[in-house]
Design a protein that fits this description.
- By secondary structure, the protein is of the alpha/beta class.
- It folds into two domains: about 5-160 and about 315-349, Quinone Oxidoreductase, Chain A, domain 1; about 165-295, Rossmann fold (3-Layer(aba) Sandwich), CATH 3.40.50.720.
- It is about 25% helix and about 25% strand.
- It is built from eleven helices and 17 strands.
- The strands form four sheets. Strands 3, 4, 5, 8, 9, 16 and 17 form a seven-stranded mixed β-sheet that branches.
- Helix 8 (about 255-260) links the parallel strand 13 and strand 14.
- It binds NADP nicotinamide-adenine-dinucleotide phosphate and zinc ion (ZN).
- The site of NADP nicotinamide-adenine-dinucleotide phosphate has 28 residues, from helix 1, helix 4 and helix 5.
């Protein structure tokens, strides 16, 4: 148990560099640690923002990846939650203080000490974290979730970020029967958001730049679909929605989207562009409207989301790629040329 675990990885040496194959050492197992043989790792747009250092402060070399699924290969002496052979997942976080009011409330993502992100972060010992584009990872059991039997490990992987990042705000803002919801942007997050909002019983409109994805949006459970490139869309839909979930990776015209909210409606942002958005305060006060944001979701809620996805047959639509195709996949995500999530088959690493 006291030896480290060598792992082949895909890493970038600096911002916007191509991926290269290297090896890293995962830490020797501590009593509560789990060693996971990673099988699949999804490509989230946040991986691209990070590897391109869009948000600044990037830690290089960087091994991205926070949509991790695999199988337990070994467990520390004190582990009770999992055993060797279990099918498991790891999302965006690998540690938190565990004692602050938010950790105690199962909102580890808002830990006051600072949640430890799965990659591009320092852990509480000051060591850089490396993510899921990797054969192995060691994670403390509190941050590992079970993958329900109904979900295959490749299809499940995007749920570990795209799934929980959309499920959590939909639940928090009480999306359900009688609520009208608009999902803005139909990429990795957006296409899963439609499925969750539909399963929660809401009436869903998809707002995408073009009409290209309309048929698929309706098949995922949307009732309506409009192109935001058409200015008529904003006139036709004025004042209609209780909640708008913005999943766009770039800046949006916030005022235009606020005008689509009913009185007391909320524009919830999960998309994370590097540059600040702007809006006019009149867009809020004329309708007692709110602007909000949401970061991923807690670990208990992630397990709830996975169980919900299994029960309601929610499945990300994925394109499985091999380890040599990641640079190309990044270019395609940036061109919105993905339907709807790339997932790396880690056995090709
Ligand atoms: P994605 O697959 O690339 O989807 C983003 C979608 O945004 C695209 O499919 C496209 O939708 C739309 N879009 C892209 N560029 C646009 C532009 N210039 N103008 C208008 N619309 C544009 O990305 P993702 O993986 O879903 O991630 C989306 C964003 O969420 C990223 O910024 C990511 O960092 C962020 N994120 C945040 C959290 C969180 O905790 N808050 C967690 C995960 C990800 P259409 O083609 O339909 O228009
Ligand atoms: Zn993500």
């Amino acid at each position: 148990m006291c030896q480290t675990h060598q792992s082949h990885v895909l890493s970038v040496s600096h911002a916007k560099a191509n991926f290269e194959r290297t090896t890293i050492e995962r830490r020797a197992l501590r009593p509560h640690d789990i060693l996971i043989d990673i099988q699949f790792s999804g490509i989230c747009h946040s991986d691209i923002h990070s590897a391109f250092d869009d948000w600044g402060g990037g830690i290089f070399p960087m091994v991205p990846g926070h949509e991790i699924t695999g199988v337990v290969a070994a467990v520390g002496d004190a582990v009770t939650k999992f055993k060797v052979g279990d099918r498991v997942g790891v999302g965006c976080f690998v540690d938190s203080c565990g004692t602050c009011e938010y950790c105690q409330n199962d909102d580890e993502q808002y830990c006051t000490k600072g949640v430890v992100q799965t990659y591009n972060n320092l852990d509480y010992d000051g060591e850089p974290t490396y993510g899921g584009y990797s054969q192995k990872i060691v994670v403390t059991e509190r941050f590992v979730v079970s993958i329900p039997d109904q979900l295959s490990l490749d299809v499940a992987s995007p749920l570990l970020c795209a799934g929980i990042t959309t499920f959590s705000p939909l639940k928090h803002w009480d999306v359900g029967p009688g609520k009208k919801v608009a999902i803005v942007g139909m990429g990795g997050l957006g296409h899963v958001a439609i499925q969750f909002a539909h399963a929660l019983g809401a009436e869903i409109t998809v707002l995408s730049r073009s009409l290209n994805k309309k048929d698929e949006a309706l098949s995922f459970g949307a009732k309506d679909y409009f192109a935001t490139s058409d200015p008529e869309t904003f006139k036709a839909l004025a004042g209609q929605y209780d909640v708008i979930l913005n999943t766009v990776s770039a800046n949006i015209n916030v005022d235009a989207y606020l005008s689509l909210l009913r009185v007391d409606g909320t524009l919830v942002n999960v998309g994370a562009p590097a540059e600040p958005d702007q809006f006019h305060v009149f867009s809020l006060i004329t309708g007692r409207r709110s602007i909000a944001g949401s970061l991923v979701g807690g670990i208990q809620e992630t397990q709830e989301m996975l169980n919900f996805a299994a029960t309601h047959s929610i499945a990300p639509q994925i394109e499985v790629i091999n380890a040599n195709q990641v640079d190309e996949a990044y270019e395609r995500v940036l061109k919105s040329d993905v339907r709807y999530r790339f997932v790396i088959d880690i056995s090709t690493l």
